[in-house]
Here is the input.
Amino acid sequence: MDKITRRNFLKTLGFGGPALLFFGKVSTVFAGKWEHAKKNFWKGNKFAQKSVDMSGYARGLIRAKVDGKWHNYSIRETSPGFIEWNQKRRLDFLASIKTGKMPELGGPHSGAVASYGLGRLDSQFTLNNAIKGIGLAPKDENLDPAIQKLKDTYKSNMAEKMDVLMSFYKDAGFVDWRKQTSLELYSEPDFETHTFLNLMENPVANIVFLDIPSYELRTIARIVGPDDPTALPSEKKLLEFVNLAHSYMHGEFSKTFPLLLFYVVEEFDNTPGSKLGIRSVPELKE
Here is the structure.
């Protein structure tokens, strides 16, 4: 078997072409007057999401402005079934990469994120769905050692890096199962994605994973910028961790991307033939 390198890994995942197509400054190539909303969220190159209030985070609460009204939500941990499925499939994914095999496209890494509320000038619809690379979040107390571990092994070969990531996922107690993470790779002042605009205005997002069992998470979504004055200390560290993990897999980037942080409020088990959309978090009581 050929030695696993970052370049080989990217080719395996279909990223062997120009980086611009996946991670570059897409806005400067495709930007126009249509890729915006009537509402502006930017001051220079910075933005701050004002539709989410994190002041109740220490009590497990999040306040969000949804459909123009403020509501309180409880942040909840995913079900034991979701955790078991997520761990196993992620470990399988990393093991495939370690052995040079093509990993499956389904599973917990590829989430279909649905949002609505504002939309862009290029569509009559605000409802949007986008496939995002979804990651896990270390618990707040584990963020510093996780960040340091990635930094210490940043220049290791791909097989060694997979062992590091697998060590995170093998320990269910290491992970904060109230959260899912991603990055907003493309939105800038001259180009805004549908997801960005919807979540800035209406911070509700559903995540569905293509797999059996089939889970759906209903979340309040934060968009945390690198210079966001509203970000909690834990959110700033998580932004650093997710960006570092992204570069750890795909190579160095010239910018820090905004964090997409999904706080779980409800979970549904949509597995065909058995659950068919039964709410699993919080459990319904008779």
Observations:
- The helical segments are 6-12, 26-30, 80-98, 143-152, 158-170, 194-201, 233-250.
